[in-house]
Write a structure and sequence with these properties.
The chain is an alpha/beta fold and about 230 residues long. It has one domain: Spore Coat Polysaccharide Biosynthesis Protein SpsA, Chain A. It has 10 helices and 8 strands. It has helices spanning about 20-30, 50-55, 65-75, 95-105, 125-140, 155-160, 170-175, 195-200, 205-215, 220-229, and strands spanning about 5-10, 35-40, 60, 80-85, 90, 110-120, 150, 180-190. The chain has an 8-stranded mixed beta sheet with strand order 3-2-1-4-7-6-8-5, with helices on both faces. The radius of gyration is 16 Å and the shape is globular. The termini are far apart.
Length: about 230
Amino acid sequence: MIPARLDIVIPCLNASATLPGTLDALARESGDGWACVTVADGGSADGTPAVASAAGARVIAASRGRGPQLAAGAAGGRAPWLLFLHADTRLGIGWRAAVERFAADPANERRAAYFRLRYDSARPAARRLERIVAWRSRALGLPYGDQGMLIARPFYEELGGFAPLPLMEDVDLVRRIGRHRLAGLPADAVTSAARYERDGWLARPARNLLCLTLYAAGVPPRLIRRVYG
């Protein structure tokens, strides 16, 4: 088997309900050994590791918290490119071609890329929020973790990797990358809308914005986590 060109790292905690869809979407375009999927489990009690193993993913145990889990998953691989993905995000058709084109350009070895965010909801509010996210990512250089993150391993290591934060680990990394070194990929990341359906399509973004504001003001992520919910 040829060595994997891409390490896909998925942090999980009790994700047995959503992880199968995420892994199925990956397998449809990367079942030839081109990519290696690592699930970094933070102590799930719902059988998540067994679900991941049954789908052919490598499972490692990691300290709880997305930052530590992402860092552990990256450290366990050797592929020249890394793709970080949430367990409730399914990549759309054509994601592999988009990744390969980005990775083939030497100019992108010191850049990072993210996918177009789509929510698995038919509500008009979901479409409005998608447009806001696209603007935020492009104009402010603030894609979040549910959009995925593609980055060359040497550049990731040069930046210091993911900090051991329980929350805001994605914002911390993209700040170090810098707005002008971020690019959008022409493929979708279809993400669960469960939090928005539960909390409201106005209240949930407002809470997210409050968390971002608190982080920018220097409030520790362990405290912000209480607000995030």
